[in-house]
Amino acid sequence: MISKVTHRIIGIDPGYAITGYGIIEKTGSKIKAIEYGAIETSSKADFTLRLLAINDKVRYLIEQFKPDCMVIEQLFMGQNHTTAIGTAQARGVVLVEAARAGIDAYEFTPMQVKLAVTGYGKAEKKQVQLMTQRLLGLEEIPKPDDAADALAIAICLANTGINNANKVVSGYQHGRYGYSKRNEFG
């Protein structure tokens, strides 16, 4: 009998008020949720302490669940640049923990996540949540929404596979890795 390789993925939906996380395992074509939730920080706390709390919890999750890789939502720069900058800083402390643990980090846009989870890149949030619930065999939609989003991001990587074109890079580095045919999860 051929043994199937199991991959453990931590998905992160970054934010400085709420950072969603979801840990899944993929064995063959089967995907299951291991743990999910949210890291919430108080708006009354010093911003540096909020970042430290996010960092500490992500470090704990990586040490506790030992994922093979991390996947994080790519930052979208909307109208509110102050919020985007804070979210980028939260994303940075999360990525530091991937580096510290020696695991690769990948990123996807919200549209890529929607496409991988629902088959439609412009799916509504509720559709993504329902498919996340269905794909993971959960009794209810994961709460809070940030946790459901993090699970969807992890499912996206599990369904599309590792491709160096999806490695986390800064804006000036985009395209540095080129497109690879390597697909560890497919």
For the structure shown, list the relevant keywords.
Nucleotidyltransferase, domain 5; alpha/beta; 186 residues; globular; 5-stranded mixed sheet; 21% strand
Structural class: alpha/beta
Q: Characterize the main sheet.
A: 5 strands, mixed
The whole-number mean of residue pLDDT values reads: 88
CATH architecture: 2-Layer Sandwich
Principal-axis shape equals globular
> What is the topology, as strand order, of the major beta sheet?
3-2-1-4-5
* CATH structural fold name: Nucleotidyltransferase, domain 5
Beta-strand fraction estimate: 15-25%
| Rg on CA atoms, Å | 16 Å
* Residue windows where pLDDT falls under 50 for at least 5 positions: 172-183
- Number of DSSP helical runs: 5
Would you count the extended β strands for me? Answer: 5
Order of helices and strands: EEEHEHEHHH
User: CATH homologous superfamily - what is it?
Assistant: Ribonuclease H-like superfamily/Ribonuclease H
| The top level CATH class name | Alpha Beta
Number of spatially distinct domains: 1
- Helicity level: 40-55%
Q: Report the end-to-end length measured between terminal Cα atoms.
A: 19 Å
Helices and strands, with pairings:
Elements: E1 6-13, E2 18-27, E3 30-40, H1 47-65, E4 69-73, H2 81-101, E5 104-108, H3 110-118, H4 125-136, H5 145-160
Parallel strand pairs: 1-4, 4-5
Antiparallel strand pairs: 1-2, 2-3
Helix pairs in contact: 1-2, 3-5, 4-5
Task: Write a compact overview of the structure shown.
The chain has helices at 47-65, 81-101, 110-118, 125-136, 145-160; strands at residues 6-13, 18-27, 30-40, 69-73, 104-108. It has 186 residues and is an alpha/beta fold. The longest helix has 21 residues, at 81-101.
